[in-house]
Amino acid sequence: MVGYDPGSQGAALSPEEAALAGSAAGMVTRALISPLDILKIRFQLQIECLSSQRSEGKYWGLFQACRCIRSEEGLSAFWKGHIPAQLLSICYGAVQVYRNLRQAVTTMWRSEGVLTFYRGLSPTLMAVFPYAGLQFFFYNVFKQLLAPPPTAGNSGGTLRSLVCGSGAGMISKTITYPFDLFKKRLQVGGFEAARVHFGQVRSYRGLMDCMIQIAKEEGVRGFFKGLSPSLLKAALSTGFTFFWYEFFLNVMQNVKEQQRTRDLTKDVEER
Predict the structure, then answer these.
(1) Which regions does the record annotate with the repeat Solcar (predicted)?
(2) Packed helices 157-187 and 121-145: angle between N→C axes, nearest 10 degrees
(3) Are 52 and 61 in contact (CB under 8 A)?
(4) Strand ranges in 89-214 using DSSP code E only, listed in sequence order
(5) Confidence class of residue 241 from pLDDT cuts 50, 70 and 90?
(6) Considering Cα of 95, then 230, then 204, then 65, what sign does the dihedral take?
(7) DSSP 8-state code for residue 3
(8) Amino acid 87: pLDDT
(9) Between the chain's N and C termini, which has fewer beta carbons within 10 Å?
(10) CB 2 within 8 A of CB 133
């Protein structure tokens, strides 16, 4: 996990316990920020302008999109694809045009073969390394800037992790955001018929063709469609991940300390 400090109090825990804390933090965070992911993807896939002054497309603002999705698809629509997202499945995007995960996988496999599950792989690989590196870098920068005085000890450590993680996530996401948009556009290739009621659709032959078409039709701003919910998601996702990670580490640490205290008390009583 980005920002994990081996010298912190969590270091007394085993690697397995740290991994468990990270997994639990990821699951809780994913459940909380899933609606923002839905909004981001809907904005990313919309060809029409995202503007309340030029309401050409189906969505043109965060609150308007929330109301539209809620009224047309119900509250559960904000958690479409949640299970495959928890499993880090490539089928996440596909579940939002299909009824469920099984039907999405079966249809994609039969119609286009195994390669369809790797659509958008190139922009994903191009973005993942700089994103991870930038996240580490900015997290450590913020952590040093917000470091408490030596006399303050470790007070407020969890809150600092939340703030530093949120800032690092937002900056890293902004820099690498266009690659995420390219990935989503490429991943839904072949599903034009299922998406036609959402607005205009486009087909792309590859990453370069995707970049060129977006630049020509939508301008440079098209590369950043859905950035606002994405930034909010990045801040909450990264921040909450650090927060819950530290929280679960502290819980396990306290449980171990309590168990150790009980064992010592029992030994004393027996003597």
Answers:
(1) 13-145, 156-251
(2) 160
(3) yes
(4) none
(5) confident
(6) positive
(7) T
(8) 56
(9) C
(10) no
* Separation between Cα atoms, residue 271 and residue 266, nearest integer Å: 9
Residue, of 109 and 254, whose pLDDT is higher: 254
> pTM for this one?
0.62
Closest CA to 80 of 48, 113, 40, 118: 40
Cα distances (Å, whole numbers) of residue 15 to 18, 22, 24, 25, 262: 5, 10, 14, 15, 24
Instruction: List Cα–Cα distances, 55 to 40, 58, 72, 187, 212, in angstroms.
Output: 18, 8, 18, 26, 24
160/191 Cα distance (integer angstroms): 43
Q: What is the mean pLDDT of residues 34-54?
A: 83
219: three-class secondary structure by DSSP: coil
Task: Provide the token pair at 269.
Answer: 């009583």
In this predicted model, what pLDDT tens digit does every residue of 69-113 receive, in sequence order? 999 989 888 888 766 665 543 333 334 465 666 776 777 677 767
> Is the Cβ–Cβ distance between 180 and 44 less than 8 Å?
yes
- As a whole number of angstroms, the distance between CA 127 and CA 177 comes to 8
